[in-house]
Amino acid sequence: MRNKYIGVIVILMSLLYPDLLQAQFSLSGEYRPRTELSHGYKKLVNSDQDAQMVTSQRTRLNLNYRNDYLLTKLVLQDVRLWGGQAQLVTNEDYAVSIHEAWAEIMLSDEFSLKAGRQEVAYDDHRIFGTVGWAQQARSHDMLLFKYSGDWDLHFGLAYHHDDNLNDDNPATATAHNDAYTSLQYVWFHNNWDASKLSLLLLNNGVPDAVDPANKVRYTQTIGGRYMVELTPITLASNLYFQNGKDASNMDVGAYNFLIEVSGSISDNMSFVGGFERLSGSDWDETDNKSFTPFYGTNHKFNGFMDYFYVGNHIGNVGLNDMYGKITVKNNDVTMGAHAHIFSSAAKIGPGVDNYLGTEIDLSLSYQFKPAVSFGFGWSTMLASDSMEVLKGGGDKGAFQHWGYAMIVVKPQFFPLK
């Protein structure tokens, strides 16, 4: 009940202490209903299957506070399917959840300590990202040490367990989530006049899937991203390596490589072109050579239809993605067209070709007012026979497509100065 009256309390405070509130607080919201029409989203469908339509909605209330030594943020979130909750609600099964709840203490001008549930995103969101497309998005329960000076350095760590202090079985640590038992990372970043470099070292621990009692298997990811401006174009590259042990106690030896060029074609048109490879394991492989992008915003990389690395394809044959993207902006309207040519990085099976298919993604957004925008998109997958083998069924000859229409409303109730 207390959460229901937060908005009323803040409004009363604004009436009693308007100068104090506007100087230290902000209160904003988000209302984001999205309707999706699917006939082949994430996997191939058969020609006799009908398209499905679903509407989901994200609703948020964001509260921020700051002074000269403290920053805090609280984000209350409700994610639901339209029709998923009865019109007459008689219980608390659909309670509002907490997406973010953290405090950052300024220990000095350069050092700070941030603790609590928080979003974690770095660089192009390949390894750590907010997953903002998903209505629920992603946040971590974490402790984060930050240094910010001539260069930036972050050290994050987390340990997850249930509430039984007498149980030392790490398998219970992930009983209530889909993430990790233990996590530590270091992120370094520096900017120069025309270039920037980020380095990441991630140690990710999960319970042993075969013998979880008192055993955690760790995978190490090391690498980074480099960008350089070579007017009129910008070059960017990612390179990451993974080793250690996976949850099945298999040796891990994997890598991720990306090379990308971007620039402007005209005042209102820009382009991006590139190639990404995520290593994979052959169908008869004994070691794990499949790269895992862990906590990245995978929806933004390998096609909007989410055939790869969005709740699927982990520990599989990897991926080669050759892509080109065009963006056109005209006042408040932005249009995008993406093309991806997919192939497997490893062997799918005996006599199976590596080419998987080509995806076309079209999008349009309209900024109607500062707090109101509309988004639309449509995608199609032109799949190959190999995609049928990889996905375990479906009909590549069927019209595989997916589309969405979305309204985004972000009112700023009280500004933060």
UniProtKB/TrEMBL annotation:
<dbReference type="InterPro" id="IPR053728">
    <property type="entry name" value="Alginate_Permeability_Chnl"/>
</dbReference>
<protein>
    <recommendedName>
        <fullName>Alginate export domain-containing protein</fullName>
    </recommendedName>
</protein>
